[in-house]
């Protein structure tokens, strides 16, 4: 029960007594009352019991009074009984011997005439959680499931699940699951049915890891007869149980469209329920059922909009937050469908900041030609807000809208107006945005630079804003009259600059400026390099050294490194892969939506629900939240689940194909902060720099990106080696795997087959893992239950750093495997896939 | 599956603590409290209602200044848990009459009794006040609502949130009246929370009504109640979701964008005669929630002006006109206007009081700045935000006529309009 932290005991309020003497006192009083037959004994006992439970709640250890409590428990007073059971339930585990004393009267109560007493006793009996008392549980439970009172049956059903947790074998040996299943399909009381479902799901899910039979039993829960039986009774269930039924239905695979429409018509009125949980569960059913019917799916979006918005307005802020999170998910999937509802997402004065943040993101997503003006006007109002974090977010939102629009003219003006507001954080945020905007739309440089040039770097305190300003000074030093002098004054204050990020940018900016305006910058460059070389920060020092040696080697080369011709960034990297987004969508109406993470990232394996695809990447942290790195416009082409592509997504894909893997990578200032990687190359300067090579800049970008793990495929990659030989001992840690999997594009997706013997012998993932290992293909994660297994493999090309990553879903029933290959070197993917499939097909054949 | 349920006071004391599954490590309540207290400390942000610490999910709502929290290890529906927490708070209130720290502390045994029936092994069971009656044996210990300071430190949790004006009824559903006989009565509240944003030139930019018909029944014998709404009520806006304020609709027809209903409501004849049939369950519940974006007449016109008046000085002029009839009085009025951060001194000329319908109030303020203002003053100050409650006033004109065939209990129908977000920009 309550934690026994001493702090809790200390902080106990006056009404909650504390301390050891108190417990001793209580023991004493209990002992006196134990045998008392005084007329008011029960009242006195009530008082003492109350104090005991009060102590327990406050976190004081009252387990010492266990014996005395049990002695006092023989009473006919229900209130006393309940308090006693509560106490015993909390402490029995630590006092198994004394707990035995309570068994007697609990068992007797299980046969009481009053169903309330029977139910109460049965519930308490099952809550003792003492393994060696299991023998006393089974028979009352079996009787309880057949009790004439629904109240008792309802408690017995949950009791079966409790028993399973104390002793799985006792539960299974007594054949309780079968009894539960029978009850689930026949009991007239809906809550009994619901509790049977809860218990069965829990038992079978845990059991499925060990037995195929249990896995099949889970399947039967989603079978047509069960689903329709439950659906027909749905209105009998309590609202909470309705959610359970709806969750189950969302896993049902209908055999034809008529079934889908039947279910949807039946559930239509659930969308008008005042309970948000019921509405969201219904929406999940609708969305999942219509996945294969694009137009109906879209109609569902239109249909659920109004109920969702009503829920947002109706409940407490907490309730509307959860609904808003789900609305956010839908908006992000299909922004176009919500573009006319933009006013619903305006921030209200009373909204807590976690709600405002979500709304700003939604406004950003749904901005299009028709509503941008209104949205940006509204966002500009928030920029002056007293709530500083929200003001910042609003400015960022305006910037993001500018980056995703075609006609940014007006927005650029608005951004520049922010700079005139002369608020520290506003200026800093705006500068970062102007920088990004210039990287995408270099044509705006003249307008922006005129304004940016007027900003004194002394007024900017925040490193991010300062770094952005310095980047612009370096990049546009030919157009900014004062650039060399501003940079020079910044260098003079090198010692006072605390942020290494700013110092790194300063180094690069001075270099850039030097090549554009050598006479004015020469002095400053010398001072900068000197300051950089004596800098205590490793990265700053290394970068200064790198520049220094580069200049020493050949200034022309240095210029090409520092000031290569740049292409505008077409798309900034999305923060989440579409795969992760799809996974979250599959888990609609769960915590995943609130956290914006699939469940395997935040739940333990043992606590996965029955509906989740188990996956072994549990403990990996995913680099999903990549910073604003501008990696090239590589995107996932697999749109199988993306029925509703947003416009921006479509655009992305278009640019990805046209712009492809050309050397459009462009190093954002923040990207260069990988100099420690660069410095490792310095000893072999000549190998890195190959003067005269026409494709120099693209190559250097490539190797850079490769070092950074960005793995951009090269346009002119050499033809693959005829035979692919794999490294026998590749090393890849799970973190890198996950990161790569998120970043790399899909090279191949194929269906392959296993030998029948192989499929039959695949009883657990280990056998296949060992087999693949003998073929130099390593497994990094596996999971699943028969007949479906899922594996993540990797392999490395011998003598190269290029990895191959494979997701392989094996169905042993059909002896088929779905293979998805991602590769650092896309050209070798085909050869690798052949190798992989041949290895797979040999599994079990020996 | 819920692992634990607990209620914490504002200071972090455990008032109730129930562990259903014994799977969450010790100290969860302390971890929760610290996290909520020090969420993103430097930016003074509020903790979101749902968060995860070391694999344990904490879901909480704040009611009457108390934290109602559940923990879970599995990926469950957040809405389900939040609705459940809110419901537990409401059921508790039904039993205790008043819900606050004092009443909970006095009745914690009763709350444990409730919790045993509401959740079993982490699975929600019944939350019906009526069904629960047969399993609850403790008598509630009454707390005198009047004796307590109305808000106290708890007020910080109520400020600015969508707080319902608690029904004035502070009577437990189980307690018997001093006279012995229970009074047959039913309370119906039509609560509308309105959001309006005025532009700097006084135009209405956005407006919305979030309404609730709330009922609290003390009737015995489960009689059927019929609630008749406006006959010309229509639901669903034509050409939905576009905000075309059709000026012609001012004729009085009420158009709801959308609405939802409590389970007990039968809508069989709703499409024909706009009547809701229901057998009200015991306790407090929302019969219907609705949302209106149709144009309505805002109860207050707010205009605000800030002007430079010499170097490092400015003048603020704030006008509020009450556009409702004179027999209605608005109360708990608070008007806030953030001023530039470099303001040193402000002097007021205030001419106010309780605002009676039809009246107009003006506030003049002189601001003195520590520095000369640069650029645009309107971007440095504002917007003006207003909070108010207007009893016996309803913005949407939604009306209720309650009919019951043979049976005439005491019935109380009340209308309340509250500000949710009432903003005038500069």
From TrEMBL, chain A:
* Beta-adaptin appendage C-terminal subdomain domain: residues covered: 724-841
* GO molecular function terms attached to this record: clathrin binding
**The keyword Protein transport appears for this protein:** yes
Keyword ATP-binding listed? The answer is: no
Q: Where in the cell is it found?
A: Endomembrane system
- Keywords on this record? Membrane, Protein transport, Transport
* A GO cellular component annotation in the UniProt record: endomembrane system
Q: Which InterPro entries match?
A: AP_beta (IPR026739), AP_complex_bsu_1_2_4 (IPR016342), ARM-like (IPR011989), ARM-type_fold (IPR016024), B-adaptin_app_sub_C (IPR015151), Clathrin/coatomer_adapt-like_N (IPR002553), TBP_dom_sf (IPR012295)
**Disordered as annotated region, ranges:** 1-26, 651-694
The Gene Ontology biological process terms listed for this entry are:
intracellular protein transport; vesicle-mediated transport
Q: Which domain of life is it from?
A: Eukaryota
Q: Low complexity bias: where?
A: 1-18, 654-680
- Which ranges are annotated Polar residues under compositional bias? 681-694
Q: How does it assemble?
A: Adaptor protein complexes are heterotetramers composed of two large adaptins (beta-type subunit and alpha-type or delta-type or epsilon-type or gamma-type subunit), a medium adaptin (mu-type subunit) and a small adaptin (sigma-type subunit).
- What does the function comment of this entry state? Subunit of clathrin-associated adaptor protein complex that plays a role in protein sorting in the late-Golgi/trans-Golgi network (TGN) and/or endosomes. The AP complexes mediate both the recruitment of clathrin to membranes and the recognition of sorting signals within the cytosolic tails of transmembrane cargo molecules.
- Name the family the entry cites: Belongs to the adaptor complexes large subunit family.
Output this protein's name.
Beta-adaptin-like protein
Q: Which organism is it from?
A: Oryza punctata
TrEMBL record, chain B:
Answer yes or no on keyword Protein transport: yes
Matching Pfam families, A to Z?
Answer: Adap_comp_sub (PF00928), Clat_adaptor_s (PF01217)
Q: Name one GO biological process term.
A: vesicle-mediated transport
Q: Coiled coil where?
A: none
Q: Which InterPro entries match?
A: Adaptor_comp_med_subunit (IPR050431), AP2_Mu_C_sf (IPR036168), AP_mu_sigma_su (IPR022775), Clathrin_mu (IPR001392), Clathrin_mu_CS (IPR018240), Longin-like_dom_sf (IPR011012), MHD (IPR028565)
Outline the extent of the MHD domain.
Answer: 183-425
> Which keywords annotate this record?
Membrane, Protein transport, Transport
Q: Where in the cell is it found?
A: Endomembrane system
Primary localization class, coarse: membrane
- What are the record's GO terms for cellular component? clathrin adaptor complex; endomembrane system
Q: Which family does it belong to?
A: Belongs to the adaptor complexes medium subunit family.
User: Any idea what this protein is called?
Assistant: MHD domain-containing protein
